[in-house]
Specification:
By secondary structure, this protein is an all-alpha fold. It is 72% helix and 0% strand. It folds into two domains: 66 residues, no CATH class; 215 residues, MetI-like (MetI-like fold, Orthogonal Bundle). The protein is built from 16 helices and no strands. The chain starts with a helix and ends in a 5-residue tail after the last helix. The N terminus is likely disordered. One of its GO terms (biological process) is transmembrane transport.
């Protein structure tokens, strides 16, 4: 029986009994197998494209890992060595001993953690005011806060430096943390999430004698775990990757962060690139772990406030 002809046969001919029950069952099986084959081919093509795209995106990171394992004589040759012929894990040991990388990592963890907690506190408080409180000029003030997102950090770095210098807090943890304790992005994220809550929730809490601070701590924050998770991952990674501001306001190795510490591995000898790559890979690992662990919270928090209701 011709399958293609049967597929295009009119429905009326089927109802008149042109095909037997066994022939119809065989036809249905063939149609099911053909559909299954098409789905498998489409899935295989999509998986192959995803793998190729992932390799293309991850190639710089994979090559950095490869270079970090290369001896210096393998890197500086006329040959294009993508993989180390003789992996040298001693590059990591030398990178960790040549500079106090452990101290730099601890400094970055401390600074990034304090900035993350500070932004969650300040941004949630500001977002509460813009969402539930009524005061004159609220919309104008919110627009001004959002307008600061258009100002690049390089435009304010000199004025910030003069301010902290006049306060006498250079080369301290405070100068690394204080200028980043709030952000317009965090305020916007929390406000959009709070706007999904009905105003009756706040009014009922006020009628029960609940203060604003208690309403935030006991009601809002437990209901905004996805937004807090997204804010935590986003803020921590941004703080971990800070370079220009720590370079400007710190001068001693005790206060340096990891991004500054990696640049200290670069010197004139031929092995500096492999050591620097070993340091880069070591520094990337904590931020990658945090991103992988919190990626679901990050995606959920970014889209949770997109639809109101």
């Amino acid at each position: 029986m011709d399958t293609s002809a049967a597929l295009h046969a009119p429905a009326a001919s089927l109802t008149r009994g042109r095909y037997t029950k066994e022939e119809l069952q065989a036809l249905h099986r063939k149609m099911g197998l053909a559909a299954l084959r098409r789905r498998r081919i489409r899935t295989a093509v999509l998986i192959t494209l995803n793998i190729l795209m992932a390799l293309f995106i991850l190639f710089p990171l994979l090559y950095a890992v490869s270079v970090s394992l290369m001896p210096g004589e393998e890197l500086f040759t006329m040959e294009m060595n993508l993989l180390p012929k003789h992996p040298d894990f001693g590059n990591y040991l030398r990178a960790w001993t040549q500079v106090p990388l452990v101290r730099f990592i601890l400094n970055s963890f401390l600074v990034s953690g304090c900035i993350t907690v500070g932004q969650i506190i300040t941004c949630s408080l500001a977002a509460f005011a813009f969402s539930f409180l009524n005061f004159k000029g609220k919309n104008v003030l919110f627009m001004l806060v959002m307008a600061t997102m258009m100002v690049p950090g390089e435009a304010t770095i000199i004025s910030n430096y003069l301010t902290v210098s006049s306060l006498g807090i250079l080369d301290t943890y405070l100068v690394l943390i204080l200028p980043s304790l709030t952000s317009a992005m965090g305020i916007f994220l929390f406000r959009q999430f709070y706007m999904t809550f009905p105003m009756s929730l706040y009014e009922s809490a006020k009628l029960d004698g609940c203060s604003n601070l208690r309403f935030i701590v006991s009601i809002l924050l437990p209901l905004t775990k996805s937004a807090i998770g997204a804010m935590s991952v986003y803020t921590f990674i941004n703080a971990w990757n800070m370079y220009m501001w720590p370079l400007l306001v710190t001068g001693s190795q005790e206060m340096r962060t990891v991004q500054i510490g990696i640049s200290m591995l670069d010197n004139t000898d031929a092995q500096s690139i492999t050591l620097m790559m070993a340091g880069v890979v070591s520094v990337i690992i904590p931020s990658m772990i945090i991103f992988i662990v919190g990626q679901k919270q990050l995606i959920r928090g970014m889209f949770s406030g997109a639809v109101k209701g």
